[in-house]
Structure formats: structure tokens, C-alpha cells
Automatic annotation (TrEMBL):
Lineage, highest ranks first: Bacteria, Pseudomonadati, Bacteroidota, Flavobacteriia, Flavobacteriales
UniProt name for this protein: Lipoprotein
Organism annotation: Flavobacterium hibernum
Domain of life from the UniProt record: Bacteria
């Protein structure tokens, strides 16, 4: 019984401890550019599993239950990528958003 509980708790902990995968509308080579930076910020404890994504000042809403999030950008569209810790994002954006924030500055495309 003890062994089963240990395995179950390890599975839950490991399964819930990684951030989402954020994928760009790009080729396979650049597809995970944002996710790599997010993983580094996650490892440094700057953000948690479901951070707020802000693109050019507008919060990007995504389903936090999904594992893969597709961002409507290509790597060539991204000008800057910054992170806000949990406390800063809570103060600036919303009391509910407490997993930190990813601030993306992007080129504006006029179509």
C-alpha cells in the first residue's frame, strides 16, 4: 500500500510539475523557441506552470487544461521576451493571475 501511494504521488508530482508547451506557428526548427525560454524561467522559479501570456500588452487567453498551447506568432515576429515573477504579475495584471507572466513584444502585422 505504501509503495502504491509513493508511485501515485510521484506520478502526480512529476506530471504536474512541468509548464505547458508553447508552440509557435513556425517551422520545426523554431517551433519551440518560446517554450525553451519558458522552461528556463520555470527552472529558475520565475514563473509557475500556467503563466499569463501578454502579447503587445494584450493578455493571450488559453485553455490552461491543455498541455500544448499554440501562439499566433513566428520566431521572426518576436522582438522581446521578458518574464514577470508571481508577485509582479499579480500586482500589474490581476489578483487571479499568480503564476507569473510572459511578456512578448512582437512586430505588428498589418494585413
Amino acid at each position: 500500500m505504501k509503495r502504491t501511494l509513493t508511485i501515485l504521488s510521484s506520478t502526480i508530482f512529476l506530471g504536474c510539475s512541468n509548464p505547458h508547451i508553447f508552440v509557435l506557428n513556425d517551422t520545426k526548427q523554431n517551433k519551440y523557441f518560446v517554450s525553451e525560454s519558458i522552461n528556463q524561467a520555470f527552472e529558475k522559479n520565475e514563473i509557475d506552470r500556467s503563466p499569463l501570456i501578454v502579447i503587445n500588452g494584450i493578455p493571450f487567453r488559453y485553455n490552461k487544461d491543455q498541455d500544448t498551447i499554440i501562439l499566433p506568432l513566428k520566431k521572426s515576429d518576436i522582438i522581446s521576451l521578458d518574464f514577470l515573477n508571481k508577485n509582479s504579475s499579480r500586482i500589474i495584471y490581476n489578483e487571479k493571475e499568480n503564476d507569473g507572466a510572459i511578456i512578448i513584444g512582437a512586430k505588428i502585422q498589418n494585413k
